[in-house]
Fold this sequence. Notes:
By secondary structure, the protein is of the alpha/beta class. The protein has six helices and six strands.
Amino acid sequence: xxxxIALSGSTVKSGxxxxxxxxxxxxxxxxxxxxxxxxxxxxxxxGCVGCAHTNRCVLKDDINEILGQIEDADAVLIGGLARxxxxxGLTKVFIERMFPLFHNNILKGKLVASVSGGLFDQETVKxxxxxxxxAYKMDEVxxxxxxxxxxxxxxxxxxxxxxxxxxxxxxxxxxxxxxxxYVFDKDKEAVERATLLGKKIAEAIENKA
Length: 209
Ligand SMILES: Cc1cc2nc3c(=O)[nH]c(=O)nc-3n(C[C@H](O)[C@H](O)[C@H](O)COP(=O)(O)O)c2cc1C
């Protein structure tokens, strides 16, 4: 059975991004492992370029083990989300820490797909991740985007705050009810696209074998 490693940049357990990633992964019919980046001991890339010849990082944290798992995997799935209009920081930190696999084109041709969540900017996130995959010379199989929820739905001031993402999304007179929350499993069209992406990943693995 092929091995797929999935890296989730969401900070919310069972949030939208994770739910969507799980649907993609289950649909591959292959062996998979989901790593939550928030649970890793992960420092920032210092830019020392100590990795240029060893393909491993000099920093002592969890990243070298993950790099090995990425090298061993038949395909990689990366989940990111929008914050302040761009890819969120946790996912970006991880992408920078993949730098040891950059210099010697270690990931050239490695199958990869993305899942991007957001309230407004999921397409931007998808494009950002695609550009990263291009830089690493990875072989992008596909990408899934879907909706998301803002913290403003739950903070208690979402209907009145001048900076409310809820008001920006639904208008100034809208009321926060349970119906406004985006639930991935209820978005049948997105679930279908996630399922298709999983099948596409499995097909790409098979075609490469
Ligand atoms: C601090 C913060 C900032 C956010 N900024 C944006 C944003 O600029 N654009 C956007 O589309 N979504 C934004 N969002 C919404 C998240 O991207 C969205 O809810 C995402 O789907 C969450 O995925 P999760 O449930 O896996 O955490 C923001 C969320 C938070 C918590």
